[in-house]
Amino acid sequence: VGDSVVSKGRETLERCIKLIESHPSWNARVVYGDTDSVFVLLKGRSKEEAFNLGEEMAKAVTLDNPKPVKLKFEKVRKFPIIEIILQN
Fold first, then answer.
1. Membrane-spanning regions, if any (predicted)?
2. CATH class held by domain 2-87
């Protein structure tokens, strides 16, 4: 059972990374991803743009996953990195 949970978590994370990095207008790069969080680099974006994109990414990844997987946008860091937290 434990291996199945880890495997599904890895699948979900990989799908999340692929979606974020392949979106044509986001121009985003995932710099860190783990079972419950993703850090995204948004080079050259303002704080406001990063907030808007973070919300948009969280919604898109949530829609791409089965319930009860839901992403929650957390915050914009001083550096142009946003953190999205996976919540089950």
1. none
2. alpha beta
For the chain, count helices (H), then strands (E): 2, 4
CA distance 17 to 31: 10
In the chain, where do the E strands start and end? 29-34, 37-41, 70-76, 81-87
> pLDDT tens digits, residue range 4-37?
888 888 898 999 999 999 999 999 999 988 877 8
Helix H or strand E segment including 75:
strand 70-76
pLDDT for position 85: 59
Q: Report the C-alpha gap between 66 and 56 in whole angstroms.
A: 18
Given a cut of 80, is residue 75 above it in pLDDT?
A: yes
- C-alpha span between 40 and 53 (Å, rounded): 10
Instruction: Indicate the angle between helix axes 47-63 and 2-22, nearest 10 degrees.
Output: 130
Q: Which residues contact 56 (CB under 8 A, 6 or more apart)?
A: 26
